[in-house]
Specification:
hpI Integrase, Chain A; about 5% strand; 12 helices; about 50% helix; mainly alpha; 3 strands; three-stranded antiparallel beta sheet
């Protein structure tokens, strides 16, 4: 079988069976197309081997691609390799000895708790449908730590107002239950009332975030909603949905939440992914110590 056909088959598998997001499928497609350029036209899958994979990754190092991107390239090759073995196209994996570069340490950005005070964003009688939607969206992202892509697939019957829970369809088509705040419930009901007022009658199985034609909104529109509302409340930093997810995790850990609990709520597969937020808290504690402790070594 030709390598190009195997790549197409793999991408369809990610999209239709693994239910990967359109953005992820597009990224993997670009990486594998770039990889396929190493081969001659009509090359067969038998030419897919460790030597070619190593050559591809070394080329990225020479081009000074950052370690995070190189990790993505390797993950893509390993996932493709695993698929080929599962499908019986290859007898054994060829990428086992591909080593991920060390992940550079980084501190995530987040919004201070006082900036997200509910008093700053109280419900008013003059709120429009769009204003209410934006406020409700902010509450879901910050109150429950959802990804913006997860919000586009939410239905009204995913919200359990009685038990204050929301059912989320996350990466890899995995479902998880996450608590919601009382403020989320309040804004959900306000938003639902606005939908009804505008003749967009929500049903249990209809999408939550919809346009004027009652069709689900895409991530681009919801990102713009967050950008607008964060600017509205005076936030001067990066105004993105992921900043709210970062804030959710950081504030929970700062208030002594279990890191395993935060991991489950975020839908992380690996604890190491969640641990970046402990670094944020640790840095803040260190800074507070240096500023306040008489023996911290800080000069006057």
């Amino acid at each position: 079988m030709q390598i190009e056909k195997c790549i197409q088959k793999f991408l369809l598998y990610l999209e239709r069976q693994r239910r990967y997001s359109q953005a992820t499928c597009l990224t993997y497609g670009k990486v594998l197309q770039k990889f396929s350029n190493l081969f001659k036209e009509n090359a067969t899958i038998e030419e897919f081997n460790f030597s070619k994979c190593r050559e591809f990754i070394l080329e990225q190092h020479k081009n000074k691609l950052n370690p995070t991107s190189i990790r993505l390239y390797i993950a893509c090759l390993k996932s493709f390799d695993k698929f080929l073995v599962q499908q019986g196209i290859l007898k054994q994996k060829v990428t086992l000895n591909l080593v991920f570069p060390k992940q550079p340490s980084r501190l995530v950005s987040f919004i201070p708790q006082k900036t997200l005070s509910p008093q700053e964003l109280a419900i008013t009688e003059n709120d429009s449908l769009i204003q209410t939607r934006r406020r409700f969206l902010l509450e879901i992202l910050y109150g429950s730590g959802l990804r913006i892509s997860e919000c586009t697939t939410l239905h009204w019957n995913d919200l359990d107002f009685k038990n204050l829970l929301i059912k989320v369809l996350g990466k890899g088509n995995k479902e998880r239950l996450v608590p919601i705040t009382l403020a989320t419930k309040e804004w959900a009901l306000a938003y639902k009332a606005q939908l009804e007022k505008n003749s967009l009658m929500p049903t249990p199985t209809s999408f939550i975030f919809v346009n004027k034609n009652n069709l689900p909104l895409n991530t681009r529109t919801l990102r713009q909603d967050i950008y607008n509302i964060l600017n509205q409340i005076g936030w001067k930093g990066k105004a993105s949905p992921h900043v709210l997810r970062h804030s959710f995790a950081t504030h929970l850990l700062e208030n002594n939440a279990s890191i395993m609990g935060v991991k489950e709520m975020l839908g992380h597969q690996s604890l190491s992914t969640t641990q970046v937020y402990t670094h944020v808290s640790a840095e803040r504690l260190k800074k507070a110590f240096q500023q306040a402790h008489p023996r911290s070594g800080k000069k006057d």
